[in-house]
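User: Some background: our group keeps a shared notebook of sequences we're curious about, and every so often someone picks one and asks for a predicted structure to add to the entry. Today it's my turn. The entry only has the sequence so far, pasted here. Could you supply the structure so I can complete it?
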Amino acid sequence: MLKIGWNYMRDYLVFSYSHDFIMGGIESYAIRMFKWAFNNDVESVLLLRDKSELHYNWDKILKELNVTIAFFSANVFNNSLYNTQGDRIVLEKNCRYTFIAADIHCFIKIFNIRKKNNICSYSSQILYIFHPYSVLASKKNILNYPYEFFMKKVKNRGLIFMDEETALAYKKKYKADVQKDAIVRLGMEIPQLKEDYIESRIQRKKDEINILTITRMEFPFKGYVLGLIEDFHKLKQLYTNLKLIIIGNGPNVDIVKEKINELPDNVKEDIFLIGEVAYEELHEYFRKSYIYVGMGTTLLDASLTGLVSVIATDFQMENKTVGLFSEEYYNLGGNPYLCENKSFTFEEVLKDILNWSEETYFKQAHCVFDIVDKYYNIEEVMIQILSYEKDNVQLPKVKGPLLSVYDALLAYIQIYQFKHK
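Assistant: Of course. Here's the predicted structure to add to the notebook entry:
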């Protein structure tokens, strides 16, 4: 039996996730949290559902950051933790634990894990909403009914949101207000801006103009890539040195390939479908690109290199955008509702950028970097998370066990269905 918390009164950051820990925005954000913890003398634990896949790239980084990897059982009656060898892990009571759950299933399981380890008085937990659908346990409304009393109860007591769009989803679903300090933006490590990147982009524009997008091919959530390909086709007639680089993989990648193959040869030969790229290798693609189009955390990654970025609207199979990241920095999902229904096409916005003067591009490149530094600095974000007012809310004595059983069954069905698509 192994123990976590043997070092008296240490602080522990425990990030939990119900799904495979692969290459994605939530996973890369967790890694940034662990890096912050490593540099600030805070111990870290990655808590995953048993039989979850851990991508080999992350496994290497987690070892470098001394992150303990633990697994919880899908069995509702088993609230013990285990390491990769199957040995049981015990959480000691003499430390302070902050649990961050990336989904409702983990959030409910953590209540039972804390109770099992008798650390309720020494720990707190947060449900961090990263996606509008994350305020729900299921996309089918009838299956969410058992959670409603619980989600209303934890309002302002351990519930935080990555942006206004996710907060709005919660407000609409549960008819509840959200406190301003409950919006905690995605934390980013802030490097020094590389001026030579910006200058080389401007100089290379005469020879080639690279438009870059990074996405998981999961439609309709990120179906914007199909509209981007169409608008690239139109722009290619005006800018012959234009190239489109698409990085990513996913269940709908074949639809993207078919879309590209429908195009004329002189267009599709300048579209590069790269596939999956390790997070630490993306920097080189940002360096060589002139414009970035995307959504979520990749907008922040791109902007930190001074790359002018365009926000794609989520849940579409078309070419809609709310415009420049420099103007809609709070709207990473490109929701028109959050900006007075402002909406453009990729073609319109990209054409404007391509017609900018060198001076305008240079100013915009600095602007996007400064915005991320001001609103998304992980040093400030982590302090905000750890100091967030968290009541020690518990599952109700009667409804709590029933919800735990229901949740474990629903989670099992959902994950089984996802893995066997």
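Suggested note for the entry: The CA atoms of residues 194 and 405 lie 52 Å apart. The first strand starts at residue 2 and ends at 4.
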